[in-house]
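On clarity, I found the account of how folds are encoded harder to follow than it need be. Since the whole study asks how a given chain folds, the encoding of that fold should be made plain. For the editor and my fellow referees, an illustration may be useful. An entry of this sort, consisting of the sequence and the corresponding backbone structure tokens, reads as follows:

:::
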Amino acid sequence: MTLLEKYKGIRQRTEDICAPLQTEDYVVQPVADVSPPKWHIGHTTWFFETFLLKEHLKGYKEYNPDYNYVFNSYYETVGARVIRTDRGNLSRPTVKDVYSYRLYVDEAMTSFLSNHASGDLKDIIILGFNHEEQHQELLYTDIKYILGHNPLFPAYSSDTNVLEKQTSKNAFVSVENGLYEIGYTGEGFCFDNELSRHQVYLREYKISTALVSNEEYLEFILAGGYKDFRYWHAEGWDWVKTNNVQSPMYWHLFDGHWYHYTLKGLQPVDEKGTLNHISFYEASAYAAWKGMRLPTEFEWEAAAPHFNWGQRWEWTESAYLPYPGFAKAPGAIGEYNGKFMVNQKVLRGASQVTSPQHGRITYRNFFHPHLRWQYTGIRLAQ
């Protein structure tokens, strides 16, 4: 597959994800961490315009200079931007305008990729592909949050193929103590935070072959887990009390029965299904209640060949920190991952809405401990 073919396929997938939306759905921002779908459409377009077309396509005319301010996310090197919490206030540019912008850039990128597909630029092009694929996952989860917090609980699509997978039969596998190689190796693409490959020493441990199910987590709820401070970090306990948290995100108790919002709308909770949409605080508290713990990201990576993963992003006990030898790239591209290596926890695996090719054993996702709008679950260790 050529770079141009891959580009077109990725861009089309983004638009396919947004196809079920109504115009009004594109502009909503219920909370700071959720961006309006319109903004994702514009931002991923801005990325290609800013880092490829404006710098490397001779004669390229910027679509609209104001869009650099509107669609820049966090790149200080590139200039000022609309603050994240105000993305939902952007009634203009309209959805129609943003799609016109996208078409304009796609036409220019078609010309660009027909003539610039080698050397150093190829690395930036492929980074752009992977960047948009990351936003495809965010589109799914942001859309779910937008619709799932609408009091009517409207379905995103009645025929979506994003399913609530069943958990496999649980067991614990033992992993011997010793030195293990951690980090990406190979010829394909990886993000800079997966480098460099290095050794870590691990003591013997056991890790579950299955993720925690809804039924298992319901036992924690019914046992008063959200009311007993003993299982929680102090910060997590403050979070529970301040936000009156009593169940995973999207769970609702109606007439004694649990329901949860899915992309197909409000559905009864399948007790055998895989638990998801929980915070690190909840994951850690549940593990403590079970007399166990969460695995570190290194334990997870070393054990991953022994179990099926990819159903849910899995919280680990590890803080998001640079690997030995990590170095940020020069310029704006260097702001991609390194600047976020503080006050966040690492998640491993993938989810039902993760884009193809992003489910690597070495992939390091990361979020603040209170966030749970992603498809996040629990794997226990001891």
The chain has nine helices and eleven strands. The two ends are 44 Å apart (CA to CA). The domain at 3-148 is CATH 1.20.120 (Four Helix Bundle (Hemerythrin (Met), subunit A)).
